[in-house]
Q: What sequence folds into this?
């Protein structure tokens, strides 16, 4: 009976079976089959059906979804990198202030590395699951084990890649001759060959690494295949090849195209847009790559991987039902923890900078001492970081950061990426509101008469020099001697006074009516001595002012002499000086005359001393004030202010970090991000021999020399150069009378260094140079909005620009030829040129004269005072040493001339060499230093040339020597 | 539902096939295993199951859903494959997958009398009522042992046996001399 029933049921057809099975719930009958068996059967069936080879399934099933998801990843990435860049940017200020909080410190380095691996794993998981139906956060937050292994994977793979790159480079270097054998001298072929090698090697490496990644990382992540097998996927490999060929192509283009980096960088919007597009393309590409590999795995890895797409869902379900949210977070605790720490960290760095700068801008930049005791206390710990007040929350956080970094300063030098170069250009413009009255129109004292004067920068502000003359007498400092030479009549020149300064080296002097002031540098002290020269053969010493500092520079306005000296604080216990008019004994400086200049880094290592006294009144006491904190280098003095410029490598204070950050991005030359130098400008009011109010500002970049600065109508203008070499660019800043930035022009002339600049009225002539000399004509007519009017590119460069007339300037510099072996140029002879700027948009080089060949030089190129120019006579003279070469092979062979060239110059006829004057008697063999003419002066038809050897008078009209006297 | 699955097998064979297998693997496996478990190794059973699915896949165009559901079709194929294999006995040779050897599920080879008997039999089994009918189907269609039936239904083995013998009596009466 049983058998019969069974047999009958065995033979049931479809309809009957339908009826039979209909009556019961067949689901309950399902056999429980284990996972492996299911997969074996499935793959077997697929194999029989021939599906796994023949049928093509689209890689991306839902394209819209795919695009949207890739886009969202892109935005997350952008956000991440923006924050990263911001940290790096703030870090720039930090590291320069001596607090290594950021990328260079080892703990932050590890933290950043963790963050980076966290991010990239997240992105990778996103890519991996981009086609899945369950696009849930749980899939993308890596589990602890996956995270840890990925972190190490990333660390190792980075090292490996760098290592491989280096090995390759070494090998190629070693076997370069093989390349030569193969391609002889074909540069392009060699490049292509290298390109191919690198691409191939890196593509292979990535294939291996990818498999490795699956092996060590993704097995921990339930949504990814947990089997691992070495597989070679041709298509994926081709894609890898493609990827690396793109990367290396990009690198090659970036290296060989100079303007490449400027393509996108014009404003924030464009940058973000292009960033989004590029990132999105990259993400799409990588997603496709990852998906392809995933599909490959699913198909070729029997049996489990073929389940992947479904198990993903199932395991999700299991997780959902089997565990609570708590378990979820526990499994992903590391990632969540790391992110939390990162957030706190970012908060910690961000707050002090936002907070501190607010504090800073509301504080005056200078602080006076309240008692002598305080001064003593200050100098006691002078070089240590002295903070003038420290009681607010921001500063606490600042110090907390410092502490945090110092405690956790475990040195790891291995993979320290040079991220701290991110230090960026950002304005520090803190100034104090002050009611400043400005006296327009500088006093003009342009009556040259028949006597030449020292070539000065600002009309009415006399500069000290080694030679001064009043027409009758020549005052000349050579080595340690002061000579007074009676020059009139020129035929009977006579040394009527000679004084050897035993106390030190006389530097420069001033002449005012019947007084001269000589500034002597003794090494540790600056001494200013005034002499009454009513009787020229017997000058009477009047004042003797001694400062404890090294001499920097000096100026004279009318009869008031201003002396700027600077010193390292280390050498000082208490600032002292002595003034003969106040008894002559060494006195301590009154604490009321001491000021702390709030420099951005709060490291007080130097101080500037400014002294002022009337040159013709020995009885009135000199004013001496000391400004602690600055380290003056270049000084510009207008008729109302002394500006001391202090270059600092790096800076800390920003007023509006966020705004500045975006300003940085939008800079034309985005690489000026790297610049870390800034210039602090200390402005000290001067009037009638009184040293008055103080103010300060700071701008990015370095000052070239005193001609980089200028003041007009209350606006202080200056040019700075940010960065060096390939990062270099030039900027123009305009500060208003409160020393607040009111206009700027940044990112001029990328990759070029400033060689000279000259402000003339509302115009600025700026010369930058790398291979050719762009002469920029910049209009400052609108202080808020400086604009480039025109530029001219010619070979050579100017180191000094002298105004000829309203529309013509003379440039003094060197001629150059492009090097044929590199991206630079060889200096040739001394070049003088007249530029016509009548048409400001198209400046022209109107006349040019080149003196000598390579090796020729002139002191004028480094010291503007060496130029003698008399506008009324159209006369110009300067010392020069001329070298001529017979052949290119021996360019330094002949010293031809040493002496002075005298020109007649005007804007219509150009240069007309009137004559040459030399102090050498015999044919020139070598440069003879003591016979090198220092200065040329003119007085009533006679040119006087001065050297260490002699003073020589030459008749201007016929250029014949009149007489000479020896100084030996 | 079945229609969608069939369509998918045409448009996207891999996905469709995988879905089919996910849904009916348990059923097919149960049928094949219970028939073959006494005589064959696990690998052979798996092989047979995969053959069933492949048969279904290769004949997917001739499947007429008006006759029955995919479940029924699969069950029929599974039955026939398993029975064939069972009959081949220990001489079982890995069958070639040639089209000729695939049992045609669409056509009905049995005689009219036979058909009548089957209809009656099914009607009788249905008439046994719950849960007896299920026990019967499990026992005679799926070939489960009394013990496993008892386990899955939560009834004592004795009860199962009693119910089966009582059912058999009823069937005998109803079918008379047919069986």
A:
């Amino acid at each position: 009976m049983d058998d019969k029933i069974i047999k009958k049921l065995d033979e049931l057809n479809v309809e009957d079976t339908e009826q039979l099975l209909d009556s019961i719930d067949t689901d309950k009958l399902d056999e429980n089959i284990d996972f492996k068996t299911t997969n074996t059967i499935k793959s077997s069936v697929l194999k029989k059906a021939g599906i796994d080879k023949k049928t093509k399934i689209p890689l991306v099933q839902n394209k819209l979804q795919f695009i949207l998801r890739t886009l969202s990843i892109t935005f997350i990435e952008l956000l991440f990198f923006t924050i990263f860049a911001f940290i790096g940017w703030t870090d720039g200020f930090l590291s320069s202030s001596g607090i290594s909080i950021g990328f260079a410190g080892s703990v932050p380095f590890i933290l950043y590395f963790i963050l980076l691996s966290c991010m990239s794993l997240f992105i990778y998981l996103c890519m991996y699951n981009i086609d899945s139906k369950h696009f849930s956060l749980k899939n993308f937050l890596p589990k602890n084990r996956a995270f840890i292994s990925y972190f190490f994977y990333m660390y190792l793979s980075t090292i490996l890649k760098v290592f491989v790159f280096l090995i390759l480079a070494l090998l190629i270097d070693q076997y370069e001759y093989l390349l030569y054998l193969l391609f002889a001298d074909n540069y392009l072929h060699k490049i292509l060959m290298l390109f191919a090698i690198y691409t191939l090697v890196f593509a292979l490496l990535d294939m291996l690494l990818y498999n490795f990644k699956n092996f060590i990382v993704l097995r921990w992540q339930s949504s990814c295949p947990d089997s691992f097998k070495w597989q070679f996927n041709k298509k994926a490999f081709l894609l890898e090849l493609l990827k690396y060929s793109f990367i290396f192509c990009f690198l090659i283009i970036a290296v060989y195209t100079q303007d490449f980096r400027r393509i996108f960088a014009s404003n924030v919007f464009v940058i973000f847009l292009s960033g989004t597009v590029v990132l999105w393309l990259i993400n799409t590409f990588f997603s496709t790559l990852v998906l392809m590999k995933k599909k490959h795995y699913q198909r070729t890895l029997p049996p489990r991987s073929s389940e992947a797409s479904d198990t993903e869902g199932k395991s999700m379900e299991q997780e959902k039902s089997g565990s609570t949210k708590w378990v979820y977070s526990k499994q992903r605790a590391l990632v969540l923890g790391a992110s939390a720490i990162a957030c706190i960290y970012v908060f910690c760095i961000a707050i002090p900078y936002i907070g501190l700068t607010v504090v800073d801008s509301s504080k005056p930049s200078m602080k006076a001492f309240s008692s002598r005791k305080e001064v003593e206390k200050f100098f006691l710990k002078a070089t240590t970081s002295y903070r003038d007040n420290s009681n607010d929350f921001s500063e606490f956080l600042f110090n907390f950061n410092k502490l945090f970094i110092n405690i956790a300063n475990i040195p790891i030098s291995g993979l320290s990426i040079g991220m701290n170069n991110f230090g960026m250009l950002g304005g520090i413009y803190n100034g104090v509101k002050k009611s400043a009255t400005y006296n327009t129109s500088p006093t003009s004292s342009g009556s040259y008469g028949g006597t030449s004067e020292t070539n000065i920068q600002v009309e009415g502000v006399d500069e000290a020099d080694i030679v001064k003359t009043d027409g009758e007498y020549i005052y000349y400092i050579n080595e340690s001697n002061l000579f007074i030479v009676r020059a009139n009549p020129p035929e009977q020149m006579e040394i009527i006074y000679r004084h050897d300064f035993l106390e030190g080296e006389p530097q420069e002097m001033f002449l005012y009516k019947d007084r001269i002031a000589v500034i002597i540098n003794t090494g540790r002290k600056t001494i200013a001595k005034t002499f009454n020269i009513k009787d020229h053969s017997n000058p009477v010493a009047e004042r003797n002012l001694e400062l404890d500092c090294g001499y920097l520079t000096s100026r004279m306005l009318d009869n008031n002499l201003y002396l700027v000296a600077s010193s390292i604080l280390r050498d000082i216990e208490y600032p002292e000086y002595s003034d003969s008019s106040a008894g002559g004994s060494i006195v301590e400086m009154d604490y009321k005359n001491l000021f702390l200049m709030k420099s951005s880094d709060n490291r007080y290592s130097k101080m500037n001393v400014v002294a002022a006294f009337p040159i013709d009144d020995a009885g009135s006491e000199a004013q001496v004030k000391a400004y602690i904190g600055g380290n003056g280098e270049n000084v510009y003095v207008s008729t109302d202010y002394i500006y001391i410029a202090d270059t600092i490598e790096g800076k800390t204070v920003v007023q509006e970090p966020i705004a500045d950050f975006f300003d940085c991005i939008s800079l034309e030359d985005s690489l000026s991000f790297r610049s870390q130098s800034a210039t602090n400008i200390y402005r000290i009011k001067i009037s009638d021999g009184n040293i008055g109010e103080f103010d300060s500002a700071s701008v990015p970049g370095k000052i070239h020399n005193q001609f980089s600065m200028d003041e007009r109508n209350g606006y202080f203008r200056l040019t700075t150069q940010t960065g060096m070499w390939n990062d270099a660019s030039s900027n123009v800043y305009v500060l208003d009378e409160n020393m607040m930035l009111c206009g700027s022009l940044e990112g001029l002339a990328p990759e070029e260094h400033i060689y000279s600049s000259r402000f003339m009225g509302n115009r600025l002539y700026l010369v930058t140079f790398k291979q050719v000399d762009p002469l920029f004509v910049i209009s400052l007519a609108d202080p808020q909005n400086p604009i480039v009017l025109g530029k001219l590119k010619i070979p050579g460069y100017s180191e000094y620009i002298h105004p000829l007339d309203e529309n013509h300037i003379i440039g003094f510099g060197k001629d150059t030829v492009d090097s044929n072996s590199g991206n630079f140029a060889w200096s040739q002879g001394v070049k003088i040129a007249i530029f016509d700027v009548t048409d400001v948009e198209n400046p022209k080089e109107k006349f040019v004269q080149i003196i000598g060949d390579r090796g020729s030089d002139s002191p004028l190129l480094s010291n503007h005072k060496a130029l003698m120019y008399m506008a009324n006579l159209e006369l110009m003279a300067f010392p020069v040493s001329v070298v001529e070469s017979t052949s290119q092979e021996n360019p330094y062979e002949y010293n031809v001339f040493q002496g002075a060239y005298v020109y007649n110059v005007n804007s219509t006829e150009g240069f007309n060499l009137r004559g040459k004057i030399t102090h050498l008697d015999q044919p020139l063999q070598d440069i003879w230093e003591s016979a090198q003419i220092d200065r040329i002066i003119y007085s009533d038809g006679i040119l006087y040339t001065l050297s260490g050897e002699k003073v020589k008078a030459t008749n201007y009209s016929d250029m014949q020597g009149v007489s000479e006297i020896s100084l030996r | 539902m079945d229609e969608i699955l069939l369509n998918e097998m045409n448009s996207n064979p891999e996905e469709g096939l995988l879905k089919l297998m996910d849904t009916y693997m348990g059923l097919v496996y149960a049928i094949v295993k219970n028939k073959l478990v006494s005589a064959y190794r696990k690998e052979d059973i798996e092989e047979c199951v995969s053959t069933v699915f492949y048969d279904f896949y290769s004949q997917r165009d001739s499947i007429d859903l008006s006759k029955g559901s995919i479940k029924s079709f699969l069950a029929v194929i599974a039955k026939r494959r398993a029975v064939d294999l069972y009959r081949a006995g220990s001489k079982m040779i890995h069958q070639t997958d040639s089209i000729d050897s695939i049992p045609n599920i669409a056509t009905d080879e049995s005689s009219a009398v036979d058909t009548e008997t089957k209809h009656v039999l099914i009607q009788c089994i249905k008439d046994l009522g719950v849960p007896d009918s299920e026990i019967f189907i499990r026992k005679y269609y799926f070939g489960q042992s009394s013990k496993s039936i008892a386990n899955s239904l939560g009834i004592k083995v004795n009860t199962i046996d009693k119910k089966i013998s009582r059912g058999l009596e009823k069937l005998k009466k109803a079918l008379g001399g047919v069986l």
About this structure: Chain A touches chain B through 46 residues (CB under 8 Å). Chain A has a mean pLDDT of 72.
